[in-house]
Specification:
This protein has 110 residues and is an alpha+beta fold. It is 26% helix and 30% strand. The chain starts with a helix and ends with a strand. It binds zinc ion. Zinc ion binds at residues 73, 75-76, 78, 87, 89-90.
Length: 110
Amino acid sequence: MHEMSIMATILDKIGEITQRENGARVTHIELAIGERAGVVTDALTFAFEAMSPDTIASGAELVITEIPLCYRCPSCAMETAESLNLCPACDVFLEAVRGRELQITFIEIE
Ligand SMILES: [Zn+2]
């Protein structure tokens, strides 16, 4: 379950941020996880519950938002959730703009 090592990285990062802000503890964490980030949300939540009690994020509330996959045409900025490869209007390759991220979007520090 690689979510354990992902959560360890997230908790490290949160520890760094909290230290930088001179916080004593973290009460709320929000993560954005792309549909294609290769992470199982339930497993990540489980990893958080298993690992956070020994960290500065002990007792914090975890909110995970899943970001749906999104492709965009670099020419006309058309966006779609389907992997069409080519923009039907411009005939150029679409770029994946969302759906693979794994980010800490918000943390609340006390
Ligand atoms: Zn286009």
